[in-house]
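INFO  loader      accepted 1 record
INFO  loader      residues=211
INFO  predictor   begin
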Amino acid sequence: MINQKIADLRLDYKLATLNEQDMAAGPVQQFERWWLEVMQSELEEPNAMTLATSTPDGKPSARIVLLKSFDEEGFLFFTNYDSRKGQELAANPQVTLLFFWKELQRQVRIEGTVSQAAVTISDEYFSSRPVGSQIGAIVSPQSQEIPGRSFLEERVKALEGKTLKRPEHWGGYLVKPLQVEFWQGRSSRLHDRILYTQGANGSWKISRLAP
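INFO  predictor   done
INFO  writer      dumping tokens
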């Protein structure tokens, strides 16, 4: 049965348009254009993105992670390699990232392959984190069942005042894009959707998708 109060929730998107002739030659350059606008808009946690993974037999899962850097090599985030997502990434490197900036009525969907970042990158980022975040990465057996909150608190207490080093089970992942879709909300749900698809020679094809 449809909950009418939920079904009646609607917002007509009218903030902006998106045209093929205005797009950058490649998706990373276009992402950078939008990213600069996002930063100027002072949105809260604009680097939050959905990471979708799946097992080899196709069982999907998704969660929010934080983008930490991007360039022509790909989109970088950090997490526990032994977590559920880490295990799924090791078994199936095909992933999707999704940004939704509702205040700008925009989405970006990135489909590609993932690989672990260089050790030097992971070490550098780990050392830049607040001490509490470093401790959290060390003590948490992410995605595993634990007996209670006290299990974590006791492990945190044991590390207080000690020299911290990045654990081998924690580090960066780099998502190399193969398809990137830029979505701009438009009135009457006739949204603008511009897709970049990478060809065999590394060049990018730009096409428009129906909303």
